[in-house]
Amino acid sequence: MKRQTKISNAVIKRLPRYRRYLRELQKKGIDKISSSEFSDLTGYTASQIRQDLNNFGGFGQQGYGYSVSGLYNEISAILGLDKQYKMVIVGAGNLGQAIANHTYYYKTGFIVCGIFEINPRLIGMKINDIEVMDYDRIVEFVESNDIDIGVICTTKDAAQEVADKLCFAGVRGLWNFAPVDIETPTHVAVENMHISDSLHSLAYHMNRTREHEDKK
């Protein structure tokens, strides 16, 4: 498989969307799809799709298009989704519980192994048969269970300290839902998820749509 030394983050962010649509095509029993058909489905141009996939080798055949199952498997492998990952969640409030429930019911290959909290009222409760543990135990748990990913669902003020502790314990990635960007060592990947940013973008698009309608 051809790989460039650096793939843009914009390309990587499009790959899960491609994979999601390919999964839906699989469920419908569709075996192949052209780049133009895939364009109509995903909303990206055919040339953008071909350019994105060419970063990793292309995978299409002239006059045939793409094998739906083949491309789905290739993108899964590129994203590392042909493996399973063990996660811990820090923060057992509403958001932490929602993430734990989502990963449990949708069986995404990301397995929640532990949930940690500082609030004594939440310690000891069970979420999908996983007991919420005292945050003081997190380093020992991560080290002894070879945890891959830490999910941060804490307050803004606590997030960096939690990130530092998880990095020290040996996680390879952090999924941060606290409303602040966290810093990590270069060997630990981080995805800062700002829910409010998405909502603000929605407000922008709503108002642009309204302006367009008003001009008619």
Characteristic key phrases:
single chain; 216 residues; alpha/beta; 9 strands
What's this, in brief?
The chain is α/β, with parallel strands linked by helices and 216 residues long. The protein contains 8 helices and 9 strands.
Folded structure, characterized:
With 216 residues, the chain is an alpha/beta fold. Helix content is 48%, strand content 17%. The chain has helices at residues 9-27, 35-42, 46-54, 68-79, 94-106, 138-145, 156-169, 195-215; strands at residues 32-33, 66-67, 85-90, 110-117, 126-127, 130-134, 149-152, 173-176, 189-192. Strands 5-6-4-3-7-8-9 form a seven-stranded mixed β-sheet, sandwiched between helices. A two-stranded antiparallel ribbon has the order 1-2. Strand 5 (126-127) and strand 6 form a beta hairpin. The chain is globular, with a radius of gyration of 20 Å.
Give the assembly state of these chains. Answer: single chain
**Structural class estimated from helices and strands:** alpha/beta
H-E order = HEHHEHEHEEEHEHEEH
User: Main β-sheet, in a few words?
Assistant: 7 strands, mixed
What percent strand? 15-25%
Shape summary: globular
What is the strand arrangement across the widest sheet? 5-6-4-3-7-8-9
CA radius of gyration is 20 Å
Fraction of residues in H or I helices: 40-55%
Mean pLDDT: 92
Separation of the first and last Cα atoms: 50 Å
Output the number of helix runs.
8
Unreliable residue runs = none
> How many E strands?
9
